[in-house]
Every structure is written in structure tokens, then in C-alpha cells.
Q: What sequence folds into this?
């Protein structure tokens, strides 16, 4: 007897419909799987055997052949358990189908006692099914909230294999519901405030510019001056995610298995701060079955790398492709997959191993060779891909002990809060939205060289200034375009349609860390 059950398989973030074909025939008893199934699927045979018996059905003592189609693509994931078990029950006629299952997909992992367990990657799989005209999915109860984010999909949660079998026979009405999509809540999001940082007006301004245009930011300075504090506060001034970005980020976290069951939809920009001892695979993603790494988990958010030179050079070099292309491709023997990786890189480092080179108070104990060796851990090509380089100076006693955000404090002494910085960010974001409407450009940092020439035009005085800087500092073509994009963002914060000299000068100041990297 033959049966055909619909499920899905993930390839990167793309969910592709997959058919589970089952044939139960007379012959020497055996359970065979074909169709490029991975180890987790091949091991499902014993789980399915026990789950079927625990559910009160007889496991067929015949030759069972399961084929996963299309047969030329590798399949992986424990969610194949439920559709394979349903196929065995239908093909052995232990369960008789009372309706049409051609538009119903099944997803779920089985335990030995027949319970249906949650699985990873449900959201992108359900989205892929809906895009191909599949309107109903039977899945674990624990994944119902996640699948409910796909508006218009009929979700049918089950807790056991027996419930799924009874539903197919028409003897049980599942508690199905039509997904209404994301329902926003009013829970406040607590973020650390820039007002906690006394002084450091240059760092706060640079953080505002970086957040407004999505630019990478490298902070260089001695220990304890506030570099890490600033990096942790940048997410609090970023613009809110659009619905499309929220859905894309949530899919990544679903595939990685990092979704919160209580709040399965991510509405805040991600903030990832991995430790510097992490491996290249953990940063870029990978494994036998490639999963998203920190680079992709930072998509549409902030990747904060503290103590940048302490990361392994091989790990840092993984950043070069996604910083340029906004995506990362992971290739393995079994195939390749591409994950989105449009993140804002924020990094912090000391100017030398001891941390006090150029410090006016403490004397640096490093010799020239030690300092160069320390700085050379960060390659020139990676530095060239970071839009903004900012020197973080030591704060004075007056700045540390002076007034906070008091009304009576002078503007140059008052603590600049995240709310104040966010006002300028939102003005710049709105100007970019209007300028790039219909062009698919998220922010100034994502402009291509051709688009940079179009939207970042310079007048004669600015052109002369840029020409002098290009020659004086031996800028690369990449640096030239990144300076123009940064100047465009500064002009947007000021509400200016054209780039002025003061905008260009400020952008140039963010590319000149020569006192740290000079020979």
C-alpha cells in the first residue's frame, strides 16, 4: 500500500515543500529510508516504531520503504518524524484517511511514548509552505504560537501521534485556528541610557551618526574610558525594526533554536556581544548541519566585539564578506546555504597591549615592536571596511563629578541621554526612507558605489576638500565611498538635503585614527 504525506525542509532560511512517500508491502520485514536523509532522520525509524506502538497501533511486520522527495536534495531535521509515522500508518491501513491531505503539511518530532515534541525552524518552513499554496499545517502544540505569526495559515496543534491519527480518521476535531499574525504588546523595553556616560561627547555624537546610517564603528582608547558602555547603549538609539525585518530576524532565531516560547516574535533589534575566545564557526555559523552564527544572529542589529585584537584573526576575517555583501555563505560537503547578515559592527580596542599609548596620565610600557604586533592583529582590509574610527579620550574629574541631565546644567556639561540622540537618528532615518523609497535601500551604509555617486554629490568646495584628503591620507576607493556615505548621514541628522563642508570634515575626522596606526 502506498501513501504520500506533505512536510517541509529547510535550506538556509528557505522552507521547501517535501513529500514523504511510504510503501508498505509484503516481503522480508525491514524499514528503509531513501532520498538523502541525514542521521537524525535515519534514526527516526526506532522512534517511529515505538511511538506507533505506544499510540495503540500495530507496527506493520512488512517491508517498509520511505522516500523523501525531491530525492536530489539533502534532508535534515527531526521534524520528519511525524510525517513519516503518518505515512506508515496510512500505507499499512492502520489509519484510514477520511479527507484530502494534499494541502495539509505535518511537522514534529516524536518521543518513544508517542508525544509530539517541538522542533526548530518552524516559522520559515510554514512561510515557505504558505507561499506555495499550502493552507494548513499540523504541528506540535509548543510551536503553535510561532507558526501563528504567519497570517492566514490554519494551524492545527497536536500533543501526541494518536491525536494526529484520530484527526486524519475524522474522529477528533483539533483546536485549530487561523493565524492572525503578530499581535503587538505594550511591554516596555529597558535599555541602558547614554546619560550614564559622563563626558565623551565625541563618542556619543559618533554613536548617533553610526546608528542613523547603519555605519560600522570602531572605538580606540585606554581602559575604563567608556568604550564598552557606549557599545551596549547603541541599540537603544537605533530606529525600530520594520515588520519585514522583524519577520526575517525571527526566522533566523527560529532556525538557530533561540526563540523564546513565551514571545516567539522578535520586535527589538538584536544585540550580540560574543566573547573573544569564540571560534570562527561560532561567529560565522557552520557545523555539520550549518546553523546561523553570531554574524547572522546580529542581522538588523548590533554585533559588538569588545577587545577586538583578542579575537582570532581567522574569526575576524569572517566579517569581511558580510560587511560588504550583507550576507554570509556557508559551504560544507553536503551543500551550501546563505544566511542574511546585515548587521552594524561596533568594536572597541586599546591602542596597545598595555592600553596606555598616547594617554596623558599613564605611561605606556609597550615598545614599538609590541605595539605594532598588537595592532597588526586587526588586518587593514577589515579596518577599511569599518566606516568610522573614533579616538576615546580619558574623561576629566569635572566631567565625572559634574551635573547629570539637570535642567540647570550648561549644554556642554549636561549628560546627553539616549532619548536626545534618538531624535537626531529618527530624523535621519525618515530622510533616508523618503529618499530611497522604492529602491530597496535600508540606510546610507548600504549604498552601492553607483548609488553613492548619485545620492552623495559634492559641490566644488567639498570636492576640493575631498581631493586634498584623498591625496593627503592615501585613501582607498572603499574609504572614499564610506566617507561620502557617512557625510550623507551627518547631513541627514542636520536635516540638510546637500552635503556641506562641515559635514564632510566631520566624516573625515571619523576615518583618521593615524595617531594609533601610524608607522
A:
Amino acid at each position: 500500500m502506498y501513501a504520500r504525506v506533505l512536510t517541509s525542509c529547510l535550506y538556509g532560511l528557505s522552507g521547501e515543500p517535501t513529500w514523504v512517500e511510504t510503501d508498505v508491502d509484503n516481503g522480508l520485514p525491514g524499514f528503509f529510508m531513501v532520498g538523502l536523509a541525514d542521521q537524525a532522520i535515519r534514526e527516526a525509524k526506532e522512534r517511529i516504531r515505538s511511538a506507533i506502538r505506544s499510540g495503540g497501533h500495530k507496527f506493520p511486520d512488512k517491508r517498509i520503504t520511505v522516500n523523501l522527495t525531491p530525492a536530489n536534495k539533502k534532508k535534515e531535521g527531526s521534524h520528519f518524524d511525524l510525517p513519516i509515522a503518518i505515512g506508515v500508518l496510512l500505507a499499512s491501513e492502520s489509519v484510514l484517511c477520511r479527507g484530502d491531505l494534499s494541502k495539509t503539511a505535518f511537522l514534529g518530532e516524536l518521543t518513544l511514548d508517542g508525544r509530539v515534541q517541538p522542533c526548530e525552524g518552524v516559522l520559515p518552513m510554514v512561510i515557505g509552505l504558505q507561499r506555495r499554496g499550502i493552507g494548513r499545517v499540523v504541528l506540535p502544540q509548543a510551536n503553535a504560537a510561532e507558526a501563528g505569526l504567519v497570517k492566514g495559515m490554519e494551524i492545527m496543534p497536536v500533543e501526541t501521534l494518536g491525536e494526529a491519527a484520530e484527526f486524519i480518521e475524522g474522529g477528533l476535531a483539533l483546536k485549530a485556528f487561523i493565524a492572525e499574525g503578530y499581535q503587538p504588546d505594550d511591554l516596555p523595553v529597558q535599555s541602558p541610557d547614554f546619560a550614564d556616560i559622563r563626558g565623551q561627547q565625541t563618542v556619543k555624537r559618533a554613536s548617533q551618526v553610526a546608528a542613523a546610517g547603519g555605519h560600522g564603528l570602531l572605538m580606540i582608547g585606554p581602559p575604563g574610558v567608556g568604550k564598552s558602555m557606549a557599545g551596549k547603549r547603541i541599540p537603544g538609539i537605533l530606529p525600530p525594526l520594520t515588520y519585514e525585518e522583524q519577520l526575517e530576524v525571527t526566522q533566523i532565531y527560529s532556525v538557530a533554536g533561540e526563540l523564546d516560547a513565551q514571545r516567539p516574535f522578535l520586535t527589538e533589534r538584536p544585540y550580540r556581544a560574543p566573547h573573544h575566545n569564540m571560534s570562527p564557526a561560532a561567529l560565522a555559523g557552520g557545523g555539520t548541519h550549518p546553523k546561523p552564527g553570531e554574524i547572522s544572529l546580529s542581522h538588523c542589529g548590533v554585533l559588538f566585539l569588545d577587545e577586538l585584537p583578542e579575537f582570532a584573526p581567522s574569526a575576524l576575517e569572517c566579517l569581511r564578506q558580510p560587511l560588504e555583501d550583507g550576507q554570509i555563505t556557508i559551504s560544507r560537503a553536503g551543500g551550501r546555504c546563505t544566511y542574511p547578515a546585515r548587521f552594524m559592527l561596533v568594536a572597541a580596542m586599546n591602542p596597545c597591549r598595555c592600553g596606555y599609548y598616547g594617554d596623558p596620565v599613564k605611561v605606556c610600557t609597550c615598545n614599538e615592536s609590541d605595539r605594532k604586533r598588537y595592532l597588526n592583529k586587526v588586518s587593514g582590509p577589515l579596518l577599511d571596511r569599518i566606516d568610522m574610527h573614533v579616538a576615546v579620550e580619558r574623561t576629566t574629574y569635572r566631567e565625572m563629578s559634574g551635573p547629570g541631565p539637570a535642567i540647570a546644567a550648561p549644554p556642554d556639561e549636561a549628560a546627553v541621554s539616549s532619548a536626545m540622540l534618538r531624535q537626531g537618528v529618527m530624523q535621519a532615518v525618515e530622510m533616508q526612507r523618503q529618499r530611497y523609497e522604492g529602491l530597496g535601500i535600508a540606510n546610507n551604509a548600504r549604498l552601492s558605489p553607483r548609488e553613492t555617486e548619485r545620492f552623495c554629490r559634492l559641490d566644488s568646495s567639498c570636492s576640493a576638500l575631498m581631493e586634498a584628503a584623498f591625496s593627503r591620507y592615501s585613501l582607498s576607493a572603499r574609504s572614499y565611498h564610506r566617507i561620502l556615505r557617512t557625510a550623507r548621514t551627518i547631513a541627514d541628522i542636520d536635516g540638510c538635503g546637500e552635503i556641506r563642508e562641515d559635514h564632510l570634515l566631520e566624516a573625515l575626522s571619523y576615518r583618521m585614527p593615524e595617531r594609533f596606526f601610524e608607522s
User: Anything to note?
Assistant: Confidence is low (pLDDT under 50) at residues 406-413. Residues 384 and 479 are 6 Å apart (CA to CA). DSSP finds 22 helices and 19 strands in the chain. The first strand starts at residue 2 and ends at 11.
